[in-house]
């Protein structure tokens, strides 16, 4: 019997399975691999890599545990709630349990300060925000179509939005000179450049609050974005999974509030939400698409069959402040932010050269020597080298202090090396000056050079 080789055409995998659009070769995921290979543990592996590349909220789990203890009938894992186990374990309609959709709608309202309400019938359930974002792309765009997106942006959007859908992401260039705000000029330039490249733009997608910046968009900016997308008749997708992580002013403004205040085509507006960040429950894989478009809700529910869902802010502010203050003592600055589970750290002063090669060199040093998994800005498609995203809510206080101590030692060594280099440069410069003054004289007669700025002594010039 002939054995067919793996290279035979019958055994080749699909283009989707073998292309590089997943983005797994990004430094963002490389940092995770470094952590997986050498994870930090306070006693078993105290010199291991500390995970600061995972935007996970572990600061509210004790509150959830306490709530379950006080409400045992709400959990199928208690004797008081075990009677509901059968209903949860059996197959459920892909529309989602009505009770659950009602609860999600109420929670979305609460997370937005009660300023706007949500209709449970417009909620489409998905397997986490990853599944929700991809589901929307399948509904709104065909392979080859484009979506505008402000940069820097979440690295895994390449996987979530592009990999299987074939959709192209077109960056809107945002600069540190104005704190990475979205300008109308940058928006229009990205749109026109896409048209020149024959990319059919179907929409604009953004994360608000921003990942990785940890900032929120104000009403003025959001209204401009709605006006822009309405004028172009393209979709606006707002990923609001960090809505309840805002820990200080300004308050978060949802796109759902904006469309209540202005005339627009609501069928172009869509929201992505989940329980992963605000509730700190990423393991439950609860993703939500909330669309004002009836056709999207209908088709989205059909597509959700492939990713069904199984049937704290004060603490964040305190953790953010302690981390930022620790960095500030080392003269490390971060973009001023008010939301999210991370900060946008400016390490440009530590770069050997202001290039992305310099950024990658610094990142490799932080991973291998400092043993911290932080994510370089280039993996977020930032167009300026030297920015890094650092997550601060996925560890206990003791681990955070160890991380700060490692950063402090690294910065201290960097300053020491810099100081030694300055001293060496100063010595070499002075030695060169001393040597230059000596060669102004003739080697044999010690007669000053006619070009010497030093006056000639009469004793030297006298003839014997």
Automatic annotation (TrEMBL):
CDD domains attached to this UniProt entry:
AAT_like
Q: Where is the Aminotransferase class I/classII large domain?
A: 50-318
Output one GO MF annotation: transaminase activity
A Pfam family matched by this chain, by name? Aminotran_1_2
Q: Does the keyword Iron apply?
A: no
Tree of life domain: Eukaryota
KW Aminoacyl-tRNA synthetase (keyword) present = no
Which keywords, in A-to-Z order, does the entry hold? Answer: Pyridoxal phosphate
Gene3D superfamilies from the xrefs?
Answer: Aspartate Aminotransferase, domain 1 (3.90.1150.10), Type I PLP-dependent aspartate aminotransferase-like (Major domain) (3.40.640.10)
Q: What biological process terms from GO does the record include?
A: amino acid metabolic process
Entry similarity comment: Belongs to the class-I pyridoxal-phosphate-dependent aminotransferase family.
Which PANTHER family is this protein grouped with?
1-AMINOCYCLOPROPANE-1-CARBOXYLATE SYNTHASE-LIKE PROTEIN 1, BIFUNCTIONAL ASPARTATE AMINOTRANSFERASE AND GLUTAMATE/ASPARTATE-PREPHENATE AMINOTRANSFERASE-RELATED
The protein in question is named: Aminotransferase class I/classII large domain-containing protein
Give the classification, highest ranks.
Answer: Eukaryota, Viridiplantae, Streptophyta, Embryophyta, Tracheophyta
């Amino acid at each position: 019997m002939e054995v067919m080789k793996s290279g035979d055409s019958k055994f080749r995998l699909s283009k989707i399975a073998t292309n590089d659009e997943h983005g797994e070769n990004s430094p963002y995921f490389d940092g995770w691999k470094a952590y997986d290979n050498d994870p930090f543990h306070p006693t078993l592996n105290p010199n291991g890599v500390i995970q600061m590349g995972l935007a996970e909220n572990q600061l509210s789990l004790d509150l959830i545990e306490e709530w379950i203890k006080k409400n045992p009938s709400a959990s199928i894992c208690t004797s008081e709630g075990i009677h509901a186990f059968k209903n949860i374990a059996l197959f459920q309609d892909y529309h989602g349990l009505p009770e659950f959709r009602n609860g999600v709608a109420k929670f979305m309202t609460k997370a937005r300060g009660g300023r706007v309400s949500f209709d449970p019938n417009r909620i489409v359930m998905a397997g986490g925000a990853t599944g929700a974002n991809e589901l929307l792309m399948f509904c709104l765009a065909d392979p080859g179509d484009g979506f505008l997106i402000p940069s820097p942006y979440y690295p895994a959007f390449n996987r979530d939005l592009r990999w299987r859908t074939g959709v192209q992401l077109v960056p809107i260039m945002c600069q540190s000179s104005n704190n990475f705000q979205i300008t109308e000029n940058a928006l229009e330039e990205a749109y026109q450049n896409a048209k020149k490249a024959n990319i059919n733009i179907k929409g604009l997608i953004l994360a608000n609050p921003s990942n990785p910046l940890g900032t929120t968009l104000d009403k003025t900016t959001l209204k401009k974005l709605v006006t822009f997308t309405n004028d172009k008749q393209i979709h606006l997708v707002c990923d609001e999974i960090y809505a309840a992580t805002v820990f200080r002013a300004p308050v978060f403004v949802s796109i759902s509030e904006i469309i209540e205040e202005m005339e627009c085509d609501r069928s172009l507006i869509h929201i992505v939400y989940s329980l992963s960040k605000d509730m700190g429950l990423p393991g439950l894989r609860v993703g939500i698409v909330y669309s004002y478009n009836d056709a999207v809700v209908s088709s989205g529910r059909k597509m959700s069959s492939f990713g069904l869902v199984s049937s704290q802010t004060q603490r964040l502010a305190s953790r953010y402040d302690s981390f930022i203050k620790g960095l500030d003592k080392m003269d490390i600055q971060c973009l001023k932010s008010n939301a999210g589970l991370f900060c946008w750290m400016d390490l440009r002063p530590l770069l050997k050269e202001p290039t992305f090669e310099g950024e990658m060199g610094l990142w490799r040093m932080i991973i291998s020597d400092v043993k911290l998994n932080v994510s370089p800005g280039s993996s977020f498609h930032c167009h300026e080298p030297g920015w890094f995203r650092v997550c601060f809510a996925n560890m206990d206080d003791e681990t955070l202090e160890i991380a700060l101590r490692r950063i402090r030692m690294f910065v201290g060594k960097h300053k020491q090396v810099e100081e030694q280099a300055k001293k060496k440069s100063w010595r070499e410069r002075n030695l060169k000056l001393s040597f230059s003054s000596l060669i102004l004289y003739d080697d044999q007669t010690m007669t000053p050079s006619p070009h010497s700025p030093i006056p000639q002594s009469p004793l030297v010039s006298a003839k014997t």
